[in-house]
Automatic annotation (TrEMBL), chain A:
SUPFAM superfamilies assigned to the protein according to its UniProt record, in alphabetical order: Translin
Stretches the record annotates as Disordered: 1-24, 163-183
UniProt xrefs under InterPro entries: Translin_C (IPR016069), Translin_fam (IPR002848), Translin_N (IPR016068), Translin_sf (IPR036081)
Biased composition range(s): Basic residues: 1-18
PANTHER family assigned: TRANSLIN AND TRANSLIN ASSOCIATED PROTEIN X
Species this protein is from: Drosophila persimilis (Fruit fly)
Family, similarity comment: Belongs to the translin family.
Binding, Mg(2+): E125, E209
UniProt subcellular location: Cytoplasm; Nucleus
Name under which the protein is recorded: GL13728
Alphabetized UniProt keyword annotations: Coiled coil, Cytoplasm, Magnesium, Metal-binding, Nucleus
Metal-binding is among the record's keywords: yes
Automatic annotation (TrEMBL), chain B:
SUPFAM superfamilies in alphabetical order: Translin
Family, per entry: Belongs to the translin family.
Localization: Cytoplasm; Nucleus
Protein's job: DNA-binding protein that specifically recognizes consensus sequences at the breakpoint junctions in chromosomal translocations, mostly involving immunoglobulin (Ig)/T-cell receptor gene segments. Seems to recognize single-stranded DNA ends generated by staggered breaks occurring at recombination hot spots.
Superkingdom assignment: Eukaryota
GO CC terms of this entry: cytosol; nucleus
Pfam families registered for this protein in UniProt: Translin
Location, primary (coarse class): cytoplasm
Membrane spanning stretches: 95-115
One GO term of the biological process aspect: regulatory ncRNA-mediated post-transcriptional gene silencing
Residues the record lists as binding Mg(2+): E151
Descriptive protein name: Translin
Length: 299, 233
């Protein structure tokens, strides 16, 4: 009996071949494994769905950053572009992050961290870059970059019972509809959890964008911006190297990249100073946007 | 003019990360205690490969050590904040898998069946569902069981050396069921999949032992008249 079974398994040593004998459903091992299978599949599926949502966030964030780079002091397009970027970022918060938050409700958020980390970091990069560019518009009360608590407060959601209609519609309906469950509904809040470490990693990517802006500004003859971005970069770098961390390989890699960005920006400022803006003058005559073709923003 | 760069953020993050480091240190201390106990249990169980008569004694001492581990897990569970199991789980997944293997081995030696995840969780004082707190991850369970398969293939060989020709047949049957079970899982291309791919070598090894035993007519079962079923290659 056991011999026969043994021979069969040998024949099926290759995974591709299906077992010829029907699975014995009464076998306790089979029964237990059916349950484990369901559990694993549920987890994998959730993971996949989050990865998908995260990928959309990554792509849209990259595009937003690309759009933000097209802000050019010569074209006076800043307000229009910023407004568009804000709208698109808001949409990411309200749609995509909300969807991930729904998937992660009542789950251990750290279990699926790998699935959404890339999208979150890219989003933070886009969001803080937008904040940076919005800043010098109203010089009287310039805002500092949002920290993770501030971002966290933006990613708060209320459950939408009708699911199809948006929040506004359901509020109206609530008055007409019923009193029951009204309080219940209010209690059903959830959020997209922002891990401070993910935030710090995402923010470190912002320095790459600042470097790019610094170089692009040289091209368009805007030397003030060169100096300004460079000093911001230096401050970020100071902040990052002040951190005392263990087991943070990913962050150290980013800090190394950051150092390269700082050096590039400092070199730009050096050139501005030493050549007295020759390069900038040349750049402003040369009516083309520099370095756009090397931008990573496109997919 | 306020700076765009918020230096407070960095000091806040430093505090945050310092707290995390401290907690990790504490977790590591408890995990190390579990590792010692598990190692002792594993050493006790090594005797099965050289002396079959001491199996039940070895299982008894292993059980005591596993019980001691359960106490440590209670301690571990209090350290980990609710909902953050997977933030720190890399510290204990390895040793938990090892313990699952040891428990599964003890249960197999004593009773001859595959321990369920529920029983393992109970023996280690863990929950089975993630929502209930510090739990036994299903992937850890499965990875632990795969370690059992490797150990049993070794045990099959050594049983023959010690003159027990029936045991390899039982083991072969058991591993066959296990193999069937794992085939029901829809595995992704991850660590579990890789480890499962190695199961076929354990199956092969045990089948070779069974083959050697049957072809020489050493097994009693075989003498009952199943010679014709011997694999021909």
């Amino acid at each position: 009996m056991s011999k026969h079974a043994g021979g069969n398994h040998r024949g099926n040593a290759h995974k591709k071949r299906q077992p010829q004998v029907a699975v014995d459903e009464d076998n306790p091992i089979v029964q237990a494994f059916r349950n484990y299978s369901i559990e694993l599949t549920t987890k994998h599926d959730r993971h996949e769905r989050i990865v998908k949502l995260s990928r959309d966030i990554t792509i849209e964030s990259k595009r937003i950053i690309f759009t933000l780079h097209s802000i050019d002091s010569r074209k006076q397009n800043k307000e229009k572009i910023l407004e568009e970027a804000q709208k698109r970022l808001q949409k990411l918060i309200e749609v995509n992050f909300r969807a991930i938050a729904l998937e992660l409700r009542d789950q251990d958020v750290y279990q699926f961290r790998n699935a959404y980390s890339a999208g979150l970091q890219e989003f933070i990069e886009a969001y803080t870059y937008m904040e940076y560019l919005s800043r010098d518009d109203n010089d009287e009360s310039p805002k500092s970059v949002s920290d993770w608590q501030a971002l966290q407060s933006v990613m708060q959601y209320v459950e939408d019972p009708s699911k199809v209609k948006d929040e506004g519609a359901s509020v109206e309906e609530m008055d007409v509809d019923e009193e029951k469950g009204g309080e219940e509904r209010q209690a059903k809040k959830f959020q997209f959890f922002i891990d401070p470490t993910e935030y710090v990693l995402g923010l470190s990517d912002l320095t790459g964008e600042l470097m790019r802006r610094c170089i692009n500004s040289l091209g368009s003859g805007d030397t003030d911006t060169c100096m300004e971005t460079c000093s911001t970069l230096q401050m970020f770098y100071t902040g990052y190297i002040s951190l005392n961390l263990q087991r943070a390989r990913e962050l150290w890699r980013k800090i190394t990249t950051m150092r390269q960005s700082v050096l590039k920006a400092e070199n730009v400022c050096y050139n501005v100073k030493v050549r007295g803006g020759e390069a900038a003058i040349w750049g402003s005559n040369f009516d083309q946007k520099l370095a756009e073709d090397v931008d990573e923003g496109f997919y | 003019m306020t700076n765009f760069v918020n230096m407070d953020m960095f000091s806040n993050y430093q505090k945050y990360i310092d707290n995390e480091q401290e907690l990790r240190e504490n977790i590591r201390l408890v995990v190390r205690e579990i590792e010692h106990l598990a190692k002792d249990a594993q050493i006790k169980l090594q005797i099965i490969h050289s002396d079959l008569s001491q199996i039940s004694g070895a299982c008894g001492s292993a059980r005591k050590l596993i019980e001691a581990c359960a106490e440590k897990y209670v301690k571990l569970a209090t350290l980990v904040p609710p909902g953050q199991y997977y933030r720190y789980s890399d510290h204990w997944t390895y040793i938990t898998q090892r313990l699952i293997f040891l428990i599964a081995l003890v249960i197999y030696l004593e009773a001859g069946f595959l321990v369920t995840r529920e029983t393992v969780a109970e023996m280690l004082g863990l929950k089975t569902k993630p929502g209930e707190g510090f739990h036994l991850d299903v992937e850890d369970y499965l990875l632990g069981i795969l370690q059992l398969a490797s150990e049993l293939s070794r045990f099959a060989t050594n049983s023959v050396t010690m003159g027990d020709y029936e045991r390899p047949l039982n083991i072969s049957h058991f591993i066959g069921d296990l193999n069937t079970g794992f085939r029901l899982l829809n595995l992704k291309n991850d660590g579990l999949r890789k480890r499962f791919d190695a199961l076929k070598y354990d199956v092969k090894k045990i089948e070779e032992v069974v083959y050697d035993v049957s072809i020489r007519g050493l097994s009693n079962k075989d003498k009952d008249g199943e010679q014709s079923a011997a694999p021909v290659e």
